[in-house]
Amino acid sequence: MTLVLSQLFTGISIGAVLLLIALGLSLTFGQMNVINMAHGELIMAGAYTVYVLQKVLSGAGLSLVVALPVAFVVAGLTGVLIEVLLVRRLYARPLDTLLVTWGVSLILQQAARDVFGAPNVQTRAPSLLTGSIHVTDDLVISSSRVFILVLALAAVVALIVGLRTTPLGRRIRAVVQNRDLAAVSGLATGRVDRLTFFIGSGLAGIAGVALTLIGPIGPTMGTNIIVNAFLVVVVGGIGQLKGTVIVAFTLGIVQSMVEYTTTVSVASVIVFVVIVAFLQWRPQGLFTLRTRSLA
Amino acid sequence: MFRIRGRRSAAVVAAVAAFAALTACGAKTNDSTAASGAGATIDTAGSSVKVGLLNSLSGTMAISEVTVRDSLKLAIDEINTAGGVLGKQIEPVSEDGASDWPTFAEKAQKLISQDRVAAVFGCWTSASRKAVKPVFEKNKSLLFYPVQYEGLEQSPYIFYTGATTNQQIVPGLDYLKAQGKTSLYLVGSDYVFPRTANKIIKAYAEANGMKVLGEDYAPLGSTEFSTIVNKVKASGASAVFNTLNGDSNVAFFKEYKSAGLTADKMPVVSVSIAEEEVKSIGTQYLAGQLTAWNYYQTTPGAANEKFVKAYKAKYGADKPTSDPMEAAYTSVYLWKAMVEKAGSFDVEKVKAASAVGGITYDAPEGKVTVDGPTQHIFKTARIGKIGDDGLIKEVWNSGEPIKPDPYLKGYSWATGLS
Question: What Gene3D superfamilies does its record include (chain B) (predicted)?
Fold first, then answer.
């Protein structure tokens, strides 16, 4: 029983990481339909922010707390820069966006290599997060994983509340549901796009901060995880926050359970097969957005 | 009208130029293949001789391989200051294998046919060594490989200056057995070294009454270890044998500590974590865990004191020295000894000089001797414990250098392995 519980927690914590990574994408890809291949590099930017702050501020705990807002802004502004310079000009050409942002991702990776050096780097975790919480004698859960879970859930709640209740959230939803109608109603859709992109990219930065607690920071860390994030968003249903949340946790739990009884590689294969089969059955994903737009 | 014609003729000129460039390239390639068929040509004209340094300077393996490149350069600098080899200065040509095995093969070929180096030093993972092995054999050029590996290999064009299994893994297992550990869990990266090493470990365990309770592999560079650590924990094994490579170790040990596992409860013996990795993984995660190597920064002796001092002077007082670094440093001096004995840089003459035997060097790990027939070296096995200061203290050694036995011919339990 302890085993099942601790595996369940492992699955949930893998899901939380997936969720954090996919959350930003669910805005830029899900809401705006922009396939931003450089999203992984925005995660990397967030992770390196922690590394830089740790060099400047001595305390590991302080730098982690400071890193959350700073990484949000750093990644967000990088995202806005990409949007203003490139993506904005290509909204009508999704395939070109894919190629251009892939190019941007290569440029950002090389930039990281030039600035921080090619070898991966590590950060120190605050002592509060290196330990573990003993639920029972056998059931031990890692405190850094709990932190990531809380962070992911907080980000989801903030995003839902923001989209539902704030004027900006209303505008974002209006533009997503019917861009033309929003425009003729007097909404500056360009500005809304830029803000959406800022928040989506900023969330990638937060994900980057969380990832420093698990593994090393390197120029290619973004590319390794971005595929899974796209999977989560596609399976969850494009533009559907609740779909992203449900799928992230489901995938995490399935991955950890299958991995426990088989091996890492077999588990990845099985997860992919399940996803392909699912998309055959529901190509539009778990949830779909009902709109009256013709597009 | 005229403008159009002008443009067209410009295009024709460009096309002709491109064609000419292409054919020129083609001719060049043909030349070099013809040359490589007859054995590698070494550029010995001039006052210097080139050697290749082939290490991953980027990607997941860079954490380890950059330090090997640095110690190779240290040895080269020292030899150059002392007058070089056969009166020639050594000129290193460094290439980045980028933690990617096909890139290693490509860069090896470039070093041999374009830079015409006398020997290449480098590679870390066995996957990269297996990728370049055919390149060195085809071109009849020399590789000095400085890292412990899984054995079961003996290329006529590779000198192995790291440990083979009977100088590292088998002594590590002997140590665990002597400590009363009866069951093992095997964790490794998913490529040739961990899989072969674990085959050997399982054969050993079976013959020595130890139980292997589980075996798991993570893709190289993987950072998700929570499930594997849960499995390790649930198995209740008395020790873990870790063959993870690169910075997967960072994620593994962070998770291991978070799961409440400690060196007292379930020690981990690692064969790819040395001082440099301890520093970057973080001592807080590793203190008390065991390693199996042939050299530590704390190994006593005048030769080691000199090496540690020279390395710190060149690269910084906070830089530790480690086993693969020491083996790399030693490999340059062994090559020098072979070349001087042969009186030539010619690969076949160098090999012949070593085959006779008697190539020795007072290395930081102690006096090492090249074993002529296997092209491996005699090494003392040392088990160490990672201390709070990030250094590794020896807790056991084999007393004398062990004769290399890459195919484990001297062990009856190993007869089924190949």
Answer: 3.40.50.2300
Percent over 70 (pLDDT), chain A: 98
> Is the pLDDT confidence value at A168 over 80?
yes
The whole-angstrom distance between residue A152's C-alpha and the CA centroid of its chain comes to 9
Q: Which helix (H) or strand (E) holds B291?
A: strand B290-293
Give the chain B residue nearest A129 (alpha carbons).
B258
- B23 and B171 together in one domain: no
Which residues from chain B sit within 8 angstroms of residue A220, using beta carbons? 59
| A264:B251 CB<8 A | no
CATH code of A2-281, in short, is 1.10.3470
Any residues with CB less than 8 A from the CB of A217 and at least 6 apart, and which? A44, A47, A48, A50, A51, A120, A121, A122, A123, A211
Q: A–B: how many Cβ contacts below 8 A?
A: 102
3 state SS of B342: helix
C-alpha to C-alpha distance for B399 and B206, rounded to whole angstroms = 26
One domain for residues B247 and B348: no
Nearest to B204 by CA among B175, B230, B224, B231: B175
Domain hosting B408: range is 166-298+380-414
Write the DSSP assignment of A213-269 as a string of letters.
TTS-B-TTHHHHHHHHHHHHHHHH-TT-HHHHHHHHHHHHHHHHHHHHHS-HHHHHH
The predicted-structure confidence for B327-342, as pLDDT tens digits, reads as follows 999 999 999 999 999 9
What SS3 state is found at B371?
A: strand
Residue B309 belongs to some domain of the structure: no
Cβ-nearest to A120 among B62, B96, B259: B62
Average pLDDT of chain B to the nearest whole number: 87
Same domain, B101 and B8: yes
The reply to whether B147 and B177 lie within a common domain is no
Pair B48, B89: CB distance under 8 Å:
yes
Is B151 found in the same domain as B37?
yes
Whether B311 is in a domain gets the answer: no
How would DSSP label each residue in A159-208?
HHHHHHHSHHHHHHHHHHH-HHHHHHTT--HHHHHHHHHHHHHHHHHHHH
For the stretch B32-90, pLDDT in tens is 333 344 456 888 878 899 999 999 998 778 878 989 999 999 999 999 999 999 999 99
Averaged pLDDT, A234-249? 87
C-beta separation of B137 from B155 below 8 A: yes
> Residue B226's domain is classified under what CATH number?
3.40.50.2300
Q: How do residues B339-378 score in pLDDT, each as one tens digit?
A: 999 999 999 999 999 998 889 999 999 999 999 899 999 9
Say what the ipTM of the complex is.
0.74
Helix A143-165 / helix A241-261 crossing angle, nearest 10 deg: 160
Residue B307 lies in a domain: no
d(CA B51, CA B115): 8
